[in-house]
Records
---
Amino acid sequence: MATAPDLQSLKVDYKRNPMLPWPFQIRRVKHETEDTFTVELQPQGDLEEFAFLPGQFNMIYVFGVGEIPISISGDPANSRTLVHTTRAVGSVTKAMDKMRRGDILGIRGPYGTPWPIEKAAGKDVVFVAGGIGLAPLRPALYEVVAHRERYGKVVLLYGTRTPTDVLFRQELEHWRARFDLEIYVTVDRAMSGWRGNVGVVTNLISRAPFDPRNTMAFVCGPEVMMRYTSMELHKRGVDNEHIFVSMERNMKCAIGLCGHCQFGSVFVCKDGPVFRYSQIKDMLVKWEI
Amino acid sequence: MEDLKKILMEHPFFKGLDEEYSSLIVGCASNIRADAGKMILREGEEANHFYLIRSGKVTLQLMTPNKGHVIIETLNEGDILGWSWLVPPYMWHFDAKASELTRMIALDGKCLRNKCENDHHLGYELLKRFADIMTKRLESTRLQLLDIYGDRS
Amino acid sequence: MKIFIFERPELDNLIAVLKRRGFKVIGPTVSDSAIIYDELTDGGSLPIGWTDEQSNAAYHLKRREDAAVFAWAVGPQSWKKFLFPPIQKLFATHRITKGLDLQNSKKQAPEESQPVKYAFFGVRSCELSAIAIQDKVFLSGPFVDPLYQRKRTGVFIVAINCGQAGGTCFCESMNTGPRAINGFDLALTEVLNDKRHYFIAEAGSVMGEDILKNIKCTKAAEEDLETVKNITEQTKAQIHRSIDTTDLKNILYQSPEHPRWERTAAICLTCANCTMVCPTCFCATVEDVTDLAGKQADRIRKWDSCFTLDFSYIHGGSVRTSAKSRYRQWMTHKLASWVDQFGTSGCVGCGRCITWCPVGIDITEEARAIRENQP
């Protein structure tokens, strides 16, 4: 029976200064879709492993450019390679996109609250991902698949813009080929050759094969998508206490000291980013909180 | 015929309709099948039928000059296809194609339309049900319009 | 607590003693038409014979007719200027042949090479509370700020009980003064009348007692304690602003759409003055700066303010674009969220935000307006 993880034991020891990044070397840069790429990193110096929990993130530092929070998207069982998937949208990610094998990135972390996978033991598990939101969910998927016997039905609902934006396509197809995972992919629009579903990801919820009375749902994607998805899950009968979302806010320190990531009275960096929907659902519909 | 009646009346769309209308509906219904690739309805044509999808998959598409056919929605088992038969000018605004072997129940919209003109209670009942479908489609479409993945995902 | 008396000239000796002990003595001094905190050369640097007049959007220094040293209220600066400096280098990285030298122990934490021992001379009761509040923010979370910790450890605090209330302060309703209760090494009360000018000193620590042994002082009597009580009660009576904090947290939490926010937002310039003068505000940003050759990059931490437009920026835009949402964020955080985050209110009633707001917004009025007009 899985128990709640001990976050303290996972912190990389920055006794001297939690603001100081640790060097990691890029082993591989993979372009996933037009604007999304994955970096695989290895710790340098006397750090050999980097353990984390699904849902956590790191602050990634590019020399002289800046530092940003990015969720970890790799397999938690592999602690020798650190994997991050991100869209190239700002100065830091655009700089990262141009980096090559051998270049060094600074890493601080892991930070944040993880997906409470242990709570899903004995229940159906529903993952709902929107766009790049699939990346922070992937470690949780790996974990659930690795201990498949602990859970009931396992369903992934994934929505993205167009078929060319489908992330981790090969992996999804590989998972779909298993008989014990239900993978549904939908896109907002497609050209006529697309054989899959077209429509918003929320449309997949009413038909997905899970028992809402005995389900844990993990939702990740743009805030609007998470809002509608959570409402739709609730409409289908999933308790708000059993729906979890991953929030995002501006972060400068990721350790609860700079004040930027406040969302109401919680700090997304240390009280989140994973939140129980019932805890924040009223704040989600308030403007400019 | 009995089999058709059962399927129709148990479908969420027709549930709750007065008994006298059920025979009417069934009288306008027929089983049809569309092979993969078959066009079920075309943009610009007269809208005289609507369909209840029993199995398979139907794509709603729009032909665009520079991109060709763009799929805007897929409908699956249990979905209703088409409401333009109920509102003027009774014309389809998009194409619908079976993307795999699809079995449907086709309902004679033209016939039903005329009946609605004479029996407003029937008209109200059908329009109420279609309003519900249209609302859900509108909500989904609006979410698609937001293009959330391109912007801040 | 042991209590002592010393005459006015010994105040200067107290400063000298602290300097001899290796402390960098920071205290009030007049500069640029205000009383600010800076390193004191000696007792002559103190704002002797000065007072101030403070009100909404107004601060004026005035000469007194006597030679009182501390007869004024807090100015634009607070002790966070030293414990949590406005600009601070966090680290420097260098490009080396093998990539990046991030963990070079010799070149990191520039503060380590010259650790400074501060003595804060003239800390008001509200400021003691503010320091305690920032201690909670920086030292009691899951991560400790090592720079704050380094500066904070070993600070010698000489508190001063206010002999008169400021024009904008409201420590009484915030339960932070005017009398200093704890958190100090020495707490002084200035007594100035026709006959005598002396200080009553309460020793709040063994070190405080020890320092006093180096100046000429005598043991105080019962009535001296009475004097302290009377003076601070008198100060209390002069305070005319207040915030009713009863259930204020919940009132603010349930008022995000209160019409008052619109009204205040129309006046607020989002200039961020309030956050800069506030002794508890702790928001910061980081800047990465490279040299021209691209060989060295420094990360600098700077004070930031939730009032700036890009404070809440995430790819695409800011979450709080309207002035309303930013004013609401600041006040709700200060008076409500802070309680859930750190166990106390974030406001100590020092009144600085009222004095230094260019349009004179008064946080006590805002709190009252929101409380009194609940739907």
Note: The mean pLDDT of chain B is 88.
---
Amino acid sequence: MSDETPELPQGPFARWKMRSRKKVADSVAKRIVDNPRLAIEVQALAEELDERRVEEARDLADHSTPVAISGLRADDPHLQPLAKNPDTVEGVIATLFVLGLLLMAGFGAAYVLNAKPWILGATMGFGLFLFGVGLVAWGKYLMPRGPFVEERHDLASSRPERDAFAAAIVERGGGLVKRRKVLGGILGGGLGIFGIVAMFPLLRSLGPLPKGTLFHTDWRKGSYAVDSTGRRVSVGDLAIGGLVTVYPEGTQNTDRGQAVDQTVIIRISNENFVTQKGRETWGPKGYVAYSKLCTHLGCPVGLYEQQLQLLVCPCHQSMFNVTNGAIPQFGPAPRPLPQLPLYIDASGYLRAQNDYDQPVGPGFWERTTT
Amino acid sequence: MTSTFLRRTVLLGAIGLFAAGPVVLFMGSAGASNSKTPLQTTRKNAGTPNSSNVVKNGKGVVVKYGDKYITYVTPPSSLDKLGEALFMENCASCHGTQANGVPASAVGAYPDLVGLGPATIDFWIDSGRMPDKDTAAVEAPRRQPALTPSQAEAIAAWVDSLSPSYPGIPTPNLNKASESEGAALFALNCAACHTIEGDGDALAFSTFAPSLRHIPAFQVVEAIRTGPGNMPRFTGNLSDKQVDDIVKYVTTEIQHPENPGGFGLGGLGPVAEGFIALLVGVGFLMLICYWIGDRS
Amino acid sequence: MSDATIPTNPRARKRAEGPYGKIGKALDELDDRLGVARGGRTFMDKIFPDHWSFMLGEIALYSFVILLVTGVFLTFYFVPSSSVVIYHGPYLPLDGQHVTEAFESTVNISFKVRGGLLMRQMHHWACDIFVGSLVVHMARVFFTGAFRKPRELNWTIGLTLLILTIANGFLGYSLPDDLVSGTGIRIAYSILLSVPFVGSYLAFWVFGGNFPGSATIPRFFILHVLIVPLIILGLVGAHLFLLVRQKHTQFPGPGKTEKNVVGTPMFPVFMAKTTGFLFVVGGLTALLAAFFQINPIWQFGQYQASRISYAVQPDFYMGFLDGALRIFPSWEFTAWGHTWPLEVFIPAVLFPGILFNLAYAWPLLERKFTGDNELHNLLDRPRDRPKRTAAGAAVLALIAMLQIASATDVIANFFHLSLNNVLWAMRVLVIITPLIAYPLTYKICLELQGIKRGGKRKTPNVVTRSVEGEYIATPTPTYSEDADHELHATPVPTFIEDESPSPAESGVRTVER
């Protein structure tokens, strides 16, 4: 059980640990060689350490055995405080308490004087903290040091008690069902149905059925595109590389308009811009419109990098290429942003040809188109 | 000792795989990592006047436009000679003696500067991005300017003289601006790249939206109106009043936030808050526990 | 005892009161009505083991107390309504803007109510510390095997508390309806949408319609303030009741067996320490709230569905979900006439579901795999159960990597790296790090088992001087009789009047390889 030198275990981690200990030991030896006076100090320290070890071992013997707390004599070493100088410790704790209380009073004063929040917090914080430290120190250093022991009584009941418990349930309850089988069955079924029906008000009334709400926006044939102030966007508004967030006219201040209809218009070029086959008329004079709802989780894709020609979603960094129909190039978004077909009317305003050709936003079970 | 050798190989292999992550990081960050070379798009008519007051000189060239919110001034032609000299000294080696640039190449394109307007030229030089130090990098970051503001104005004057265009060098009138309108506009138009607290963040493929904490008011207008680099250009869709409001908001609340709650934690939001809660909060309390309890 | 004859002279009156004076008399009255004397004495004698790692649960408990106190304050001022008003108040950048009452009331708490900002920040910091300390406490319980029989139920309760706390935190920081937390609500809506079969119904029912829903803030409010805290309170009560009934576990050591508890008594020592600790936790939370700003919603502005900010991570305890969502590839497919949004469902629903179910099932799984159906009141040192410790380390490594993955843009910005490469690096690291953590931890555990006092850093060096004058230093254990955890019966000194401890099973440390 007692080892003078620890055995060397196998693995690299253990060897490293042993080696680093040896290194410390060697450096100690070297320091003594370099400074002979240290040897005398080390000798004195060793003697003191020996004395202290004896004292601590005696101390340990007194205190290592845990005892039950009741029935102890008043002079029992277990009831002595941990601190070697209880009076000094008491003084320190008293100081901590007084400081803490003063700071709490300071908090009160700061509150009355309407001080800044950080002063309120600092006074209360330090006050509580010092007070708490004092209380903890009292418990740790001035109260009976122990260690004390308590027996764990068996948690489990005895065998006869367990049998009696089981008997009551099985025989009484079983007897009930056996004699009144039909009633028992109806009760069970009834409770089940009652439970399900009772959930109806909680679940069903919470919200409307989705039906087709997720499939359409408010964009219609001829809808004017307006910005957040309600101003209609016209053909001279954007330079190449410009972007504006638009809504169908009249919806810019509504929840649905902002949440579902939100669209970005980007100017990619000066002439008609075709993003994909079949979309030849969708990008008049280089104006291209995409749904601003990210197809990953619905965050607004407002981050446009005009040279990289990317719309980046700030939430999880999906990157959509605006030149080919917002096909995602990177990141978790699964589908391209739906494109809104635009046209320019006689007065030069940008208007929608139609609603989007697919549901906008993140994926859901009933969605069928890719 | 084959078993030791085997174990060591497995351990080293695992550590090598583990290191693969950071290696991928550092490999990619040095230089352009995406497949497409970013193009510095050349464009004519770099912005619409977008204002009601337009002042033309005798030759019919617009020299000043703007309203009570922002005035744009084309630098006077008296600076042309100085500008030309400075341009040849600092810029012509990349942008050519005619300032019409070098087409896209493997290393990077040096764009055509003709027809971009004085504000563009002034912005790039005044923010220290030009003259560029590292032409292989994807973007030119903001640096201490190598040229003084008047030198920048002179270069802008000369380049503009080659083909006069908009916008001129702006001066916003912050007395007439509304900070709360600016806050709303900032949230809608700017926060997506620059974050709501204006600290900037990393964008795609080694591009970055810079922090707005130390940018003078007129540079904010220049950036908004000219759309430098990957930043979109806001011309007709933001009126001068709206741009003025945004500038007011940026130069007050963004650059001098009230922060009544204490240290602002760098505007990093929940990431920084989590660090502090775990390290300072839970960590310090664990130290207290270590003091209170036993260590058996 | 009839008081018909109360003596008049004071000394006699004192004698009539009994040996414990007025307090004793008052307690007598109490016991007449409630019968608390027997249980009270037993309760005060209850022994709590002293190890520092047993206090981690207290950090959580006292953070919860602070949450309750500050939360009550906040409920007096917060208005849980989505009605739109025009803000006019001390914070000028918002003046004249259309905001919801929820947002306006929160800005007013921060700027108008005296002490309001401090209370708000204390509430938020206390929540962060609560979840952090819950995780640390849970890790302690896991690595020391305190979840084994008879404490599986307590493990289940604790795990449920963790889930409820995370949920309540999300609900709470979403209440002010600001730009950053509103984005989180949008993401939560889409996660509900992504559930196959019932996703759209689920989302419409929870939120009351298509996003943003008619009743989001009021519903979140009542959940956050009443329903979930009540459940948490009940579960915390059950958790503590089980702790008192089953008694706390303890590490093996001198005098400690499976059949006893060694430590300090409830009254006065433990009470003093724990009450002091309550004040310490409160004080630290107040200091954090004083000096570190958290969640400055006035700067974020009112949430509008078409606005967004960059660098919008959720609070850190949801970070692992955000990280999982960022790194997961875009695997959505359409089949059999329906869309399967796996790129949302797997990282946000399936993965945490599997993780938490694994955690719930762990006591059962461990019983199955080790065949150990014994009652355990003594804890393991983590190194003595290398497989369990390594598994826990691997899971922690996974969660840590996912947390880091939620900050890809912040990391890319701070170190000036390409965002795309940071994301790819995180995809690799999330897989690799747990795979490395498991065998590494396993090996270290095995080696630590072999070294006496392997976990300690310093050992004394005995310096001896040879005859030639050479100094040799060797590291040694502290005491040559340093018996780590071998137990031997200690003879009890005769002056102690109670019974000597029975030589029951000496909880000799068993070591698993």
Note: Chain A touches chain C through 123 residues (CB under 8 Å).
---
Amino acid sequence: MNKLKILLVISSVILLTLAVGGCKYIISGTFVFVEKVYFTAETGFYFYQIDVTDEEDWQENKDKIDFADAVGLELYVRSLEDTDVYFDAYVDDYSGLGPLPSVVPASATQILDSLLIPPGETVITYKESLKYIIGFDRLKALALTGRFDYYGLSTGSPDETFYIDSAYVIITLSGSD
Amino acid sequence: MKRAVIAIGLIFIFAAGAQSQGIKVGAGAFGGINIPIVQDDQASGTAFGLRGRIAMKPIFVLEPNVILGKWGEPGEVDGLDLGIDGSKITYFGLDVTIGGAPATPGFKPFVFAGAGFYSIKNDDTGYDESKLGFDGGLGFLFGVTPEIDIDVRGTLMIAPQKEGAKKAALVTGGLTYYFGLGQ
């Protein structure tokens, strides 16, 4: 009889825990969002603001997002330079409208450190980008807000000698209803 | 992996102790498919494991078990091939089974529920979460002889994460051998 009681207690604990957290656990999933982005790459300093908070999908789902599993990129780059070019990239809180910055603020977090682009065409796949990207925690936190500032720095000649033919941001989010 | 090996060792130590108390004890291996539920970044994969069966009463059976699983590569999402491997799953826990009495030939349906420790890891994305989770399901045993059961079951696994959970359905088949029945 004692063994039976132990089994009933174990079963009750499992059922009780599922009843308390079960709905959240059951109505949840992991979703991958692929967003094509358009930007140029120039020698020196550049600044972009990424903001998807006005988009219908974001408005519908923002309250269901729990956390970001992963953030990555896929880039198709064409460089007309004779030598290697190096990119650094940073992200920071969305600063809103205001004067265009000319330097990377101290509050920004670096996400690419001397990413090498050789002369010619280069493809950086999503899988490869996951190895290059640093500062994941800040990047994931900013992705959850739906908007952030992006700063880039690159080497190379002052002429327009390299191009981003296409670029995708891939965000994996876990959410629940 | 080290935790899984320790858990397997504990299963056999516990099984040996229970058998000496006159409790029917068995052990077996299983394998099958592992289907992620509502997970865009995963595809169907495989699951293999070891399971002990300890019959406290003919109708109630405790099942300590270890599962090593892997989901498949997710393939294309919105036309883009993510090119990453699926996540690896390690689980060790304890199920309580009603039905499926050991050491009797024939068809023996059962239901089960349990809890255990899930670890989900992806080497490409760096995702790595470990937490207490739950599982449950149903299946049947077919006793080929009193010592050997064929085990077929479907399992719903719920592995809680920071928020929400990763879920999967496992469909597995295996063999279980009961010790000491001929003595």
Note: Residues 2-178 of chain B form a domain with the Porin fold (CATH 2.40.160.20).
